[in-house]
Amino acid sequence: MNRYVALLGFIVVVLGGGSLIGYLTLPGEWYAGLAKPFFNPPNWVFGPVWSVLYILVAVAGWRIWLRDQHGIAMRLWIAQLVFNFLWSPTFFGLQQIGLALLVIVALLAAIFGFMATAAKSDRVAAWLFAPYAAWVAFASLLNASLWWLN
């Protein structure tokens, strides 16, 4: 398979999947009614930030896939994507803030695990996850704060 077709596939799966899940689980009246911490960003920030992050995630996954499709780094990449795609339905769909907190902590662990493992074979792929790790750490704090306040 052409490597750039594979890259396009990674982008479609990650950006497309994340966008679809985001669209299907938009914050609604329930979320609007929650008590929020002072550092809660406005809703319009999330779409552009996640779009950029999903492209970085896709490129990192593609780079690791080119090196070792069945290795531990690729398995961690898949795990983080599963946790990522589970968070919005858990938080917004099921309205389970505490359960979503567990999901996002698992997501953060998978992200750091991927970064540590990927760094051994592809430092660029590992560094592509740095903004993602920072944002998910912030989102974890936000999720924990929402759980605490509500």
From TrEMBL:
<feature type="transmembrane region" description="Helical">
    <location>
        <begin position="44"/>
        <end position="65"/>
    </location>
</feature>
<keyword id="KW-0812">Transmembrane</keyword>
<feature type="transmembrane region" description="Helical">
    <location>
        <begin position="5"/>
        <end position="24"/>
    </location>
</feature>
<dbReference type="InterPro" id="IPR038330">
    <property type="entry name" value="TspO/MBR-related_sf"/>
</dbReference>
<dbReference type="GO" id="GO:0016020">
    <property type="term" value="C:membrane"/>
</dbReference>
<protein>
    <submittedName>
        <fullName>Tryptophan-rich sensory protein</fullName>
    </submittedName>
</protein>
<dbReference type="GO" id="GO:0033013">
    <property type="term" value="P:tetrapyrrole metabolic process"/>
</dbReference>
<feature type="transmembrane region" description="Helical">
    <location>
        <begin position="124"/>
        <end position="149"/>
    </location>
</feature>
<keyword id="KW-1133">Transmembrane helix</keyword>
<keyword id="KW-0472">Membrane</keyword>
<comment type="similarity">
    <text>Belongs to the TspO/BZRP family.</text>
</comment>
<feature type="transmembrane region" description="Helical">
    <location>
        <begin position="97"/>
        <end position="117"/>
    </location>
</feature>
<dbReference type="InterPro" id="IPR004307">
    <property type="entry name" value="TspO_MBR"/>
</dbReference>
<feature type="transmembrane region" description="Helical">
    <location>
        <begin position="72"/>
        <end position="91"/>
    </location>
</feature>
<dbReference type="Pfam" id="PF03073">
    <property type="entry name" value="TspO_MBR"/>
</dbReference>
